[in-house]
Structure formats: C-alpha cells, structure tokens
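Researcher: Last one for today. Full complex below.
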Amino acid sequence: MTAPVLPRSAARLLRWAVGSPDVAEGILGDLAEDFSATELRRGRTLTLVWCWIQVLMLVAVFLVRGRSVRGGAGGVPGMITGLLDEVRQVVRSLRRSPGFTALCVVVLALGIGASSAVFDGFRSVVLADLPVADPDRIVTLSLNDAQGRDVLLTPDQIAAVGAQAQLLSVVAGVRNPTSTMPVTESERPLLLDFAFVTWDVFSVLDARPALGRFFHAADGEEGAPPVTVISHRTWQRDFAGAEDVLGRRLVVTQYQGSYEIIGVAPAGLDYPVGVDYWILPGPRRQAMGLIARMVPGGSEAAAGSEFLALGQAIDEERESPSEPTAAVVRSLTEAVVGGARPILVAIAAAAGLLLLLTCANVSGLLLIRASRRARDVTVRRALGASRGRIARSVLIESGLLGLGAGVVGLAVSDSGLRLLVTLLPGEFPRAAMIGESGPPFGAVLLATAVVVTITATVASVATIRGGGGAASPARHTAARLGSGRARRTLVGSQVALAVVVLFGAGLLTRTFQQLSGLPLGYEANGVSVLELGIDRQGLAGPAELTDLLSGAFARMRAVQGVTSVTPLMARPFTGEGGVYSVTPVASGQTADEASRNPRVPLESGGTELFQTLGIPITSGRGFRETDRDDSPNVVVVSEALATQLWPGRDPVGERVRLRLARDTWWTVVGVAGETRFRALREETPTLYLPWRQFQILPMAWTAAVRMDRAAPAGALADVVRRYDPRVYLWRITSLQEHLGRGPLATPRTAAVLVGLFGVSALALAALGLYGVMMLAVQQQTRELGIRRALGASDRVLRLDVLGDTLQTSLLGCIVGITGALFLGQLLTPILFDVSPMDPATLLGVPALILSVTALATYAPVRRATRIDPRVALQEQ
Amino acid sequence: MAKHLGELEHLILLSIVRLGPEAYGMSVLRELKERAGRGVSRGGLYLVLERLVQKGYLDTRMGTPSAERGGRAKRFFELTADGMDALRVSGRSLMALWDGYEGLLEDGR
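Model: Here's the assembly. Have a good evening.
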C-alpha cells in the first residue's frame, strides 16, 4: 500500500478552518487512514472527490459551529453569522428545486470537465517544459540546398562544426526521423523505433536519466561494446517499468547485434518524435541532422547564419551532392510538438468557448430563477433588504453551484483526460505525458474559478439592475424589460459561441471527409502489410538473402485466399520523402534542366507489386520474373514524373540515370498511376524498381499480401514459422489500419472532439433560448391575453414570439460568424481542401442554429397561443 | 461541579474509556459505529471532541507520525479527572433510571 496523499489544497483549507494545528493534524491523519481504504475500494478519482467532500463538510461544520471552539469566548462576528445564515438559506432554496440545481450543476460540470481536461492535455503536450535544462537554448539545425532538400552531415563533420562554432556551445548529431528494426529481448519479439544519435546528444539536452546513465564518449569509439538508452515510454510499456531493465539486452535479429540497456530517458523526452531507443551509429557512417545548445544570449538567427557559413565551408565529399544555401533553425519544443500544435490549439479553443457558453447558459438559468422570485425580491426590498444583500444571495447561489459543479467536474475531467488519451493517435508527440501528473486539479480549479466569477458577476449585476428598483409598478415593468435585455444578451452570446464552435467542427469534419474521400491510387481493401524479421547471421550474401525471402514469399502465395504477394520498401505512410529518395536525371537533359528535377521516393517490389496494391499500369508493363540482377535495369515511373521528365513524349523506352550506390542507367518499361502511398495529403511522383535489381538492406523486411478472403493471418504466420527458423513474422496489419492510424488519425480526432463540443454547444444554446422565451411568454401573459381579447390571431402572436427569438439568434449568428472567421484562420494549417471561409459551412451553421432555435421556441409559442384572456387578466 | 453530559458526549467519553490508550479520532468513530451502532458524522465527532477538550473533560497528546497516515500524527484523547466525574454522574443517573427496568433491554421489539 502506498502512503496516502491528501490533496495539499484541501489540507490547507481544513487547517485554516480549524485554526489549531494539532486538531487539524489529528483530523487530517484520520482522513488519510480512511483515504487509503477508500482508494483501494473505489479508485483514485472517486476517492479524491470523496476526500474533498469530507473536507468541505468539515470546513463548513467548523466555520458554522466551531467558531466558539476556535475563537473562545469572543463569539462570532455578526457578518460571518449573517453570511452563514444566507448560505444556509440559499442551500435550502436550492434543495427545494432539485431539478434546477441538478441541471445547473450538470451543465457547469460538463463545461468545467471538458475544458479542464482539454486544457490539462494541452498543457502536458505543449506548455509543459521538456525534461531538459534551458530548453529555449536548444535548437535543431539543418542545411537545405536550393531545392529545399536536406543536406546531411556525417558525425565527423558535425564534430568539426561543433569545434568551430562560436554561438553553439555543444553540438550533437541526430538521425531524424526514426526507423523501425525488429529486436528481441530475452527471446521476446519487439518492434521498436530507434534513432541514431552521436554520444553527446544528451549533453546537448542536459537531461537527467530516469534510470542508469546516458552515453559516454567511450561508448562511441570503434570497438566499444554496443549500448542503448531506452525511452521512458518503452520502459513503461515493454518493460513494465522494471528497475532491472538495466543490463538487459536488445538483440537486433538481422545481424544479432546486441545492445546493452544502460539508461532510461526521462518521461516526455520525445526527440526525435516517436523514438523508443537511441543507439550510436556503427562503422557505416550515418548522415545526420544537428541538435545544439546555443551559448547564453545567442539568437536563433545568428546561430543559423553561422551554421550555414560553417556548412558551406565543409567541402569534403558530402553525403548529399548539393551545396547548402540555407540553414533551418527550429527550437526543440517546435521540433517535438510542432505539427501537433494547431490541432491542440483548435481543440483547446473549442473547449474554452464551450466553457464560456456554459457560463452564459447557467447565468441565464440563474436569471430566470431570479425573475421567478422577482416578487419575493420586491417584498424583501420593501422590508428593508439592501440591494447588496439581494445581490449577495445570487452571488452565493452561483458560488455554491460552481463549487458543486467543480467537484463533479473533477470526475468528468479525469475521465475526459482518459478519453482524450485513447482518442489521440498513438504517434501523437508526448501523448504519454497526458494525465501523468494525476487528476487535473489545477485546471479544474481554474475552470471553476472562471465559472463562478462569470456567472456570479453576470447574475448579480443583472439582478440588481433588473429586480432591484422594483418599488412602483411602472418601474417594475421597466426593470423587467431591462433584465429581459440582459437575458437576451446572454442568449445571443450563447448562439454566437455555438456558431464559432460548430463552424470549427464543420471545417474539421469536412477536412476529414476530404481526406478520407481522396482517391488513393491503389486499392487498400484486402491488402495486409507484413513486417518480417530475418536473422542474417550465417547468410553468405545478398543473393542468399533474396533466395531465403523469395522462398518465404512463395509459401505465403500458396496460402489459400492469398491472390498476390510482393516485397515492399517499407510500411506505408512513412512521410513525403519516402524511405529512400533520389533525383532522377533523364537521358538528354542538360545539367541545368536536371537541377530542376524533383527528388522522388523510390519503391521496390516484386512481379506482383502493382497487382497487389492495385496500382494501374497505364502504359507499358510492370515487372517480370526476368527482371533480375543479371538482366538489364528496368524502371516503372508514375505518370506525373513521366510528364515532368519527358513532356509530350512516350516515356516507355526512355532512359533515366539514378544516383544510387553509384550512377546507373535504367530503362523505363512502364508507367503507373499516381498514388498517395507515402503521404496522404499529396500525390507523390514515384519511381518503382524491381526488388531483384535494387534493394537497400532494410531494417525490417516488409511485404504486402492481397487476399480475397478475410483473416488467413494465422495461416501466414504458420507458413513462415514452418518455412525457416531464420525468418519471423513480426506484425501483420491491414493497409486500412495503416491508413486509419496514420494520416487519418489526427484529423479524425480533431473532428470528433470539436464535433462533440459543437453539438454540446448547440444543445446548450437551444436550452438557454428555450428557457428565456418560455419566461418571456410567461411574463407577458397579461399583455398577450389582452391582445388576444382584442382579436389578435394565433398567427400574429406566433410570429411575434418567433420573430423575437429569431431576432436574438440572428444577432448572435452575425457576431458568431465574425469569431468563426477568426477560428478558421487558426485552423488553416490542418485544413485540407477546405477554405477557412468555406461558404457551405459558413451558411450551413447559422441555418442549423436558426432552425434549432426555432424548434426550441415551439413550446413557448404554443403556450402564447393557448393563453386564455380571461385567466390572463385575472392573474396578478 | 460536573454538569450533565449530552448523549453524544456521553457515548464519546465512554468509548474513550473503553479504548484506553488507543483512543483517537478514527478509533472513536469506529467504536461508536461498531459497538454502539451509531454512525456519527466526522464533523459532529470532531466538534464534540473539541468541546469536551474545552470543558476540561479531555486531555490530548500527539502521537508519532506514521506512513499510513500520510506522515501525520494521531491525536490521542484521555479523560481528565473532571471528565471521569462527569461521566460518572451521567452514568449514575442513567443507571438509576434504568434500575428495575433492565427487562426492557431484553426484547423491546
């Protein structure tokens, strides 16, 4: 059992209320004893809520009745007794209308819960510092050539830059993005993403290991025993946070390299994004980007220009043939969180707006209640109650409701956070940080404070203005109109806020629709992606490896239900650059023309590549069994690339020069359709090579299988297992899953979350409007009755009430659209094929809102036309 | 001269006597619940305890902090001579009234 930890703020509150430290210590200790027992039974969140309720009750008891204990004979100051009396009165009146109280608490709690959950998630991902010292001074640096392509450096070159740079104090190399390599840990297969770094990367970060140590200079030397540092997430997920993880080994299957785990990085250190473990580059020199710590007071711009100068000075043979012309400097936070920021901003904005809306809504409810009590107030005023006192009771009422909502909101928020974590895509940076620090007390407290302040202020101001001066009948009417205006403003602002949130939801939903409706260029249904691990120990050379794999593919092909099989370069959606990209040069192009050629991703596959993925061959042919390493090099190009390299000509038969291991010429034998295989948002012109003529030695062998029947997954694993012990089937996932988890995941999350907020906003606005109109009709009963008696038709009355509603909502819509346009600008980076001022959404949302509000006034309108003049006139 | 005790005061003092050196907030609460079948609210209990301390019926001493209490000490209660007197007086008057009617305790239902 762990030692119970009471919320510190609760303990402080109790100490204050009790007065005597010893008494408080005894009580808190008793609570702590119960706390552990309750926690075991009910879980942490409920226990916290329970604890707060206990403390609040104790505080109330001690404040109300314990003052004599606390203050001795001095008695209780009159003001406090008065206040407590009022509190008791308000509590009693709230208990008398449980429906109203519950409605207010639930509405507020949902607002508080949703917004604080999102705010807390936002804080964890974006605002919480990375676990490194002085993160502001850490930058990632890269060099670009004139075409905007990365110019990478070798570890030696990076060391040279570090030695010469005046503005950078420590410099290290990082290979970004990460790659996947199947590893085993005590025979257990794991698929982990790793990043190559130079040994001093953690010195740049100046981070402290959560366990063990980071790399030393000696670890990077030739012949040193291979070691690795694992991420906090991996430690928790794959090693269950065991202390004895140090000294265990990650064994890379394909070359039986065995890395000893020497340390665990601190939580939230997600650089490069998605990394599971860091290793040092082997004898094969890796081209890398830079991460560096600037000297104190250094600016990013100055560091960037110095780096560019140093980079241009390195004229030794470079990994990339082109000359750097620009340096890109990004802060570490930007590099880690960058892409996730707009979506979080959007979600946070929507949650904040929803919170404001709940405030407006509950303020409206309080006002309605206050005006129901208008006569009561008038009487109290007549009996000498001051305006202040009346306002105070409204204040107390909203305060109590807010507090109650805060307690419930805490539970809502905690489950909201958990929901958020499950909704966010797995690759989301630092998602593991969300909810790490327990329930979001701070955020809930903040949201509750906002709610109490706003509702209390609005409600009390409106009450003083509205119900305050009600002494004469004439002023009574005037006052009622005044408070009517206040209520209408509240409803109008709810409509406006709902327009903004719904507009955001609309844009995000349309983005998701556009993305999921994109023509992929291949047929994702029925395709599974297989990741294979191969133990390459004892394999003589590439030829033997190819034979081993061919055998495996042949067995898979023979499985019932499998219609085609092909090796792949890597699993899909690895990014726009693909896994391996080259700049092709067409025969006959001048150097100048060639320099404008795009850098395109390479794919390599077997004879059934196009058939498996369902990519159409529009001209020429695909690959054949005869395209082998001893036959002429052949290539298939995608249409867009063909048009660019040979405009207006038939590319089949043309030749293209590719700079792979060395410069080689390839003959175009076919043209394939455009696809969105490496990235979803853009079609990528692509080069396809037969796998027997071109292989990079991949970290994990990938293959695609097309099946006409569901689920021979087990059968596939079986054949592979029986085929050769050196081949393992690591993972099998459908292409649809890759699509859903990868490029569609974030837009879907955003659309779902903001959509939820939007629907809640709409419901709340409708509820608010309903309440206000109901009241308006009720208050005008007499007037409406007279008008009916004088012969006004149902239609006129109906239009009257409806017109009133529409006027308010229309005004709200107009204000809301202004805000919506602003939100649209904020969302621009994540929208796809949807204008931030999308006219359909811009018109659709107000139309939806107006029809819902019209619907919400159905009951009030009905009531207006059912008024019996005789009854109406007798009233009051 | 000791005044008469309220019913809850009476129960609490008696529980403290029964618990001996182990009487502190939680144990009193438990004793009341388990032995006397009285579910007393936490606030009510502490309030009465403090009142009894103020009347001079109870002495208190702080124990040593323990982990299961989140590093907090127990606040033990013990009857003073006055407290014992008050309990006796109340107890006697109660007994006196019960005298001869113990049969009612057997099966009152």
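Chain A is about 55% helix and 15% strand. The first helix of chain A runs from residue 8 to 18.
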